[in-house]
Amino acid sequence: VDAGETFGSLAFKVAELLKIQDPSTIAMGKEPNPANAASILQLADKAIESAGLRHGDIVYVSFQDAVDDYLEKQRGLIDRKKDPKFCRHGNNAMCDYCMPLEIKHMSFHAYLRQHTAAQHSKNSAAPSNNLPPLEEQDFRVKIPCSGGHAPWPEGICTKCQPSAITLQSQAYRMVDHVEFSAASLIESFLNYWRLSGSQRFGYLYGRYEPYLEVPLGIKAVVEAIYEPPQQDHSDGIQLADPWAEEARINAVAEACGLVKVGMIFSDLMDDGTGSGSVVPKRHVNSYFLSSLECIFAAEMQRRHPNVCKHSVSGNFGSKFVTCVVSGD
């Protein structure tokens, strides 16, 4: 770019290069810490030379979904009114019976605030507290290793071997709710099974919005279901992956202001009574997702990472949702 160009022009070029749908979510700064970056909305009309930048200077760019920017500015507490039975104070005071509640079942932004507060409390005197608080897990063997031995798999030591893995429930939800904009989306999707008896798969296109029923919550609003090329069977689905039209479909969705927010597939079996009911196969005493479905969902989340300026790598987790249509 030329020195006389504006930061707004630079933002559009960066958005095109990094395939960022909304350039207004970009922030720029002279330091790697995203907290010190300025929103492009504040810099759009300013010339690049006005910031004192010269050829060779480094400009740090950060961006994230607009819904994340919105939720970072919210309080995230559940407000309670003054209890006329237990509260014995004036209108400008507060007690245990009326103070705002902390979040129990955390959304991602609630977890982020809790994690950030704990890190700042622990390292309040250390300069490292300005580093991004989140870091993606990496369980790969470190190659090369500083231990001086032959690289894996010929050798391994405590310096290069990955940490032990413990499985536990995730403490937060990346997406708290899925909302379909019209019932006809599901009806049209189910009609294929009703007519053929075969299962069906589709990608969900929509957008992310704040979910007001949960403090700092996020919901995926589905506006369209696209069913890619597939071979359907009564007990499963065989997908073409990758599919030829994926880039074109994504471009059309982007032109409509939509992104791929998840996927949906059916697992339905008629109960044979002729009443239109289906067999409830997935429940607390059986399973909700099979091992193969878990692997597939994890792979799709890996392909669609969540952009997060609070992560060392720039990504953390995924907002890609998986919906299963089954008997209840």
Automatic annotation (TrEMBL):
<dbReference type="Pfam" id="PF05021">
    <property type="entry name" value="NPL4"/>
</dbReference>
<feature type="domain" description="MPN">
    <location>
        <begin position="178"/>
        <end position="316"/>
    </location>
</feature>
<dbReference type="GO" id="GO:0043130">
    <property type="term" value="F:ubiquitin binding"/>
</dbReference>
<dbReference type="InterPro" id="IPR037518">
    <property type="entry name" value="MPN"/>
</dbReference>
<dbReference type="InterPro" id="IPR007717">
    <property type="entry name" value="NPL4_C"/>
</dbReference>
<dbReference type="GO" id="GO:0031965">
    <property type="term" value="C:nuclear membrane"/>
</dbReference>
<comment type="similarity">
    <text>Belongs to the NPL4 family.</text>
</comment>
<dbReference type="InterPro" id="IPR007716">
    <property type="entry name" value="NPL4_Zn-bd_put"/>
</dbReference>
<dbReference type="InterPro" id="IPR016563">
    <property type="entry name" value="Npl4"/>
</dbReference>
<dbReference type="GO" id="GO:0048471">
    <property type="term" value="C:perinuclear region of cytoplasm"/>
</dbReference>
<dbReference type="GO" id="GO:0006511">
    <property type="term" value="P:ubiquitin-dependent protein catabolic process"/>
</dbReference>
<dbReference type="Pfam" id="PF05020">
    <property type="entry name" value="zf-NPL4"/>
</dbReference>
<dbReference type="GO" id="GO:0031625">
    <property type="term" value="F:ubiquitin protein ligase binding"/>
</dbReference>
<protein>
    <recommendedName>
        <fullName>Nuclear protein localization protein 4</fullName>
    </recommendedName>
</protein>
